[in-house]
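Recap from last week: sequence in, structure out.
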Amino acid sequence: MQGMVRKPRIHFPGAFYHVIAHGNRREKIFRDKKDSQGTLNFLSEYKDRYGFSLYAYTLMPNHVLCGWVELKITVPPALHNKELAIVIEH
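Predicted structure tokens:
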């Protein structure tokens, strides 16, 4: 599958990121309001911990969209590990 690898993001303070997490095969990732609230709690905790400004988000039954601006030089590690997946696991 040549050419399928995404180029690394360029990180700098003030960079805007559009981030999406979705269910496999477009399956639902939120079963109820408790699942949605858990994801909002997660975003709030990581926003404070890793220093980014969350400007917009939407929680749909089968995906999450976020727009944020980095205040530091690193994207929150939550994007590079399974913590977000655990929050929204099916």
